[in-house]
Amino acid sequence: MTTLNFTKMHGLGNDFIVINALNQPVTWTADNIKTWSDRHTGIGFDQLLLIEASDNERCDFKYRIFNADGGEVEQCGNGARCFAKYVTEHGLTDKTSVMVETMRGIIVLNILDDGRITVDMGKPHFAPEEIPFVPKNKADQEAKVHMLVVGMETIPVSLVNMGNPHAVMLVEDVKTAPVKILGEAIEKHPQFPQRVNVGFGQVLSPSEINLRVFERGVGETQACGAGACAAVVAGIRHGLLTDTVLVHLPGGDLTIHWKEGESVLMTGPAAEVYSGTLTY
Ligand SMILES: N[C@@H](CCC[C@H](N)C(=O)O)C(=O)O
At which residues is there a site annotated Could be important to modulate the pK values of the two catalytic cysteine residues (predicted)? Predict the structure, then answer.
């Protein structure tokens, strides 16, 4: 029998179990994660976050992320804020600016005086091969908006890699957007070889949007931090948004700041819920 200590946390309702691999051995399979993430028969969570030591001397920790379907992925913005809260409040560091290694580069977590966390999410990338996205032709290769054929519909999407892949579309009203049906179809669309997170954004003003995200490997979540960054970056590139935007997600609000050529900054809360022990 194996035991594993975990802490349940969330960022705006996007929920996680955080596992500290610095003080306990961790071994699991993708099937274990699927079982634990089940909301009826398991703990229930969107992502599992793992804290490891980093081999990179510039970094304080290594941050690994697994979706509810068991697959390891590159980035999780809401998780990054929870990671920062965990390592500071559980005494793993006394720094207020923490550098962590992720699968796709280094991100910086800054704890603010009011308890919120600002994450430097790094620079966004747009080239099809960086998403990754397979364009149909040369025009599609260079386009800022890609026309995606989904069943009988052609949907304009903006593609942004925020460490992980995002396709963002504009909608009239997020309340009535077909998030599940279109999200499922686009997540697994053959032009996205590593699948994709799908954002549905509604512009309220140049500094405020509503957003719902159908996450790769999970389904719709209460909030997606990287998705909020991707939606704001796409809106700024299309001239619809200013450099600081309040993003209203079903679980609450994030502030996203970006200037062309710079890193994206995401600010929001993180919360600890309880700790427990898994036996398997
Ligand atoms: N919830 C996240 C993103 C988690 C990973 C994503 N589902 C993927 O597969 O890339 C966030 O807050 O950024």
Answer: 166, 215
Q: What is the ipTM of this complex?
A: 0.99
Averaged confidence pLDDT in the chain: 97
Question: Which atom of ligand 1 lies at the shortest distance from residue 215's CA?
Answer: 7
E strand map for 138-264: 146-150, 153-161, 165-170, 197-205, 208-215, 219-221, 244-249, 252-257
CA-closest residue to ligand 1 atom 3: 76
76 a catalytic residue = yes
- With b for 16 or more beta-carbon neighbours within 10 A and e for fewer, the 20-30 pattern comes to beeeeeeebee
For 128-262, CATH number out of 3.40.50.300, 3.10.310.10, 3.40.50.150, 3.40.50.720 equals: 3.10.310.10
State the angle between helix axes of 77-89 and 225-237 in degrees (0 to 180), rounded to the nearest 10. 130
Class of domain 3-122+269-279: alpha beta
Pocket test for ligand 1, best of 37, 83, 192, 197 (most atoms within 8 A of CB): 197
Among this protein's residues, is 229 annotated catalytic? no
**From atom 10 of ligand 1, which residue's Cα is the shortest distance away?**
164
- For residue 141, the number of C-alpha atoms closer than 13 Å in the C-beta half-sphere is 3
Tell me which residues have their CB closer than 6 angstroms to ligand 1: 14, 46-47, 67, 73, 76-79, 164, 197, 215-218, 221, 224-226
Residue 110 marked as a ligand binder: no
Enter the pTM of the model: 0.97
220 labelled as ligand-binding? no
